[in-house]
Automatic annotation (TrEMBL), chains A, B:
The keyword Cytoplasm does not apply. This is Prephenate dehydrogenase. Transmembrane segments: none annotated. Pfam families: PDH_C, PDH_N. One of its GO terms (molecular function) is NAD+ binding.
Amino acid sequence: MKKNINSLSIFGLGLIGGSFALSIKHQFPEITIYGVDQNSDHTQKALELKLVDEIKLADSLEVKQSDLVILAIPVNAIHNMLPALLTRISNNTVIIDTGSTKGTICHQVRNHPKRAQFVAAHPIAGTEYSGPEAAFPKLFAGKNNIICEFELSHRAAQDCAQWLFNLVGMTNVYMDAENHDKHLAYVSHLSHISSFMLGLTVLNIEKDEESIFNLAGSGFESTVRLARSSPEMWAPIFLQNKKYLNNALKEYISQLTHFQTKLEAGNDEELSKLMHQANKISKVLD
Amino acid sequence: MKKNINSLSIFGLGLIGGSFALSIKHQFPEITIYGVDQNSDHTQKALELKLVDEIKLADSLEVKQSDLVILAIPVNAIHNMLPALLTRISNNTVIIDTGSTKGTICHQVRNHPKRAQFVAAHPIAGTEYSGPEAAFPKLFAGKNNIICEFELSHRAAQDCAQWLFNLVGMTNVYMDAENHDKHLAYVSHLSHISSFMLGLTVLNIEKDEESIFNLAGSGFESTVRLARSSPEMWAPIFLQNKKYLNNALKEYISQLTHFQTKLEAGNDEELSKLMHQANKISKVLD
């Protein structure tokens, strides 16, 4: 498979795009990697860190004729760029996106004449850090990658996606875009809101007493870790997944409110019961 | 200091009590450690793991005449036992508790004739695991220990506490019991509820689809880690800290509800603003 990939373009030189670049470079140094990013700090840093060989504009000939284009930009930018980009690429170019939502993106290009050249993916990998400096080649190793509507991609595009995710060490899981968005609302997007708002609540109360954070243990750090995440990346994800995430968030608030009323009532038994139910998460995490 | 400690009794042979036992044994193998625990699985396991030298009943002569008694039992059990235990101990015995709440416990013994033999402490250390097998000698190393109302302990008790927390590698921080409970509500207890209820919300929705948890990334795992915690330990903490925790929980629910209404309204700018504010948590975590 590899022999067909001589050049590839990566849109977005942050944690995800940069980590793909490093992983590919390590294994196939002969592939030319073009980088596209509207943030000049990112392009400069990506060159310094040797993530990419050259920086290109989004509509350059090199990008349009790349064998593979990886989109690792915020999901609103994927939504805005994908149809025109599909139109402009050569007939042999494959585009793979890495967005954390799939419904809006898949829906938008479902009837595009070049839909078959696109693979809708979501590698389940990331850290709370962002930017080119956060990239590392093993980010994806041993993790799952979700591919949606794989049957709408033609054989060469399917092969290309399998080559890419295999080389970075991921296992592919296939599902439709609606199910992806519904499940990810619960097992990823909700966690981020829970963490962002926990961070905000505590900062609002403890704003004049930074020293108090010295008293926080590893438990606090673990639950607010995701509050470091990039708003530019997450606001578009939350909005594109509004339908499912709004339900998830309402259910979370409802559980918290139930717990709060039982706490206020001093209902020891009910608090214990709720926590014992929550303990079952161990079974699915291990 | 060490020369005055020939024997000590540990009530509660779980993560905290067991880790104190291991850390002391490693450094002072000549000190006799008695273990007290009403759970016979715990006492048996504690002997097997050589956490303690002998198992004793709570009102045994050896316990009453120990140089030091460490209480590492749930905070409701500390509350129930402390006054009578103080009454029974010898005049040279020091009792140090390790409970995660301090207001109720300190209030209860404030006027006890032997109050000066007691030191109210809260070592900020723990994991989501519990029981004797979870204990390890380095649990406390490099962490903070909060001591409340230190001025009510007599000099020998103060020295004993400083010896103990120094030997396990902790730094002491001093505050009054009310302030302890107020701050810990935000930087520890609220995190646990946030995590317990996140676990419960996701389990309720995804109950028939365990395979979906394969799609969860490290972010989800980080935010629900504390949902593994022991309800027997945490229900009494939440109830003893009801006043401050109830406020904290209401504020958290209010922040989440605000976020939810902005999400529902598709208010990109406001969502980003809230997340940027939450990002400031990085400054206090690093």
